[in-house]
Amino acid sequence: MKMADNKNMDLTKTFFTVGSQIKCRFQGDDVEGQVAAFNHSDRILMIRSPSSCGKPTNTDFILINADCVEKISVEDRVPPETLKPVDFHKLEKRRQKLAAIKKSRIRALSAAVLPEARKLFLTIIKTIEEVAWDGDNIVVLNEVRISPPYKVEDVTGEKEASVILVKKIVDKHWKEIASNSVTT
Fold first, then answer.
1. Which of 42, 57, 168, 169 is deepest in the core (most CB within 10 A)?
2. Cβ contacts of residue 46 below 8 Å, gap of 6+?
3. For the AD domain, which residue ranges apply (predicted)?
4. Strand blocks (E) in 41-183
């Protein structure tokens, strides 16, 4: 396909869709690749091309100011992709879940407990989201309790599988604390 040659080319009138293969020249450089995105309002074209470092698993993304494009040709067009509808209910549930996690972490930092207890709480919440304070006890999954001084032997609960999981997390936490204090 012949390249369009126009110093003041208007890319908004050039038809290409995300996924189309294009060749373009900007600021004297020729670029060939797949359209990854085009933002009409900011006039930015993003092209995905094979990695300049030569690794087949890597990809280069090139952002080009559309005002700097001198020539462009569409080598292979792809039909416009139909966008799937956004499930706003699902998005709202995700937002609420993330907000609850943040609030829980804030409560952990503001709880009137020893700093070691806070650190353990934050370690557990990285693996298990359902963690709360009950006075100075850490409650995990509403079924496992960790009492001061928050060691493995202080983990109690009804469900053996949950207790074992929490004990592993607590044990690993204290081993990491010990190894960090040895290295510093």
1. 169
2. 35, 36, 37, 38, 61, 62, 63, 64
3. 84-178
4. 44-50, 59-65, 69-76, 131-134, 137-140, 144-146, 155-157
Is the C-alpha dihedral spanning 170, 143, 132, 145 positive or negative?
negative
Peptide bond into 80 cis (omega under 30): no
Specify the CATH number of the domain 4-76.
Answer: 2.30.30.100
* Residue the block writes with tokens 């396909």: 1
Please give the structure tokens belonging to residue 87. 């499930």
SS3 96: helix
Place of tokens 């190894």: 179
Roughly what angle, to the nearest 10 degrees, separates helices 115-127 and 160-183? 120
Convert the pLDDT of each residue in 65-82 to its tens digit: 888 888 888 887 776 666
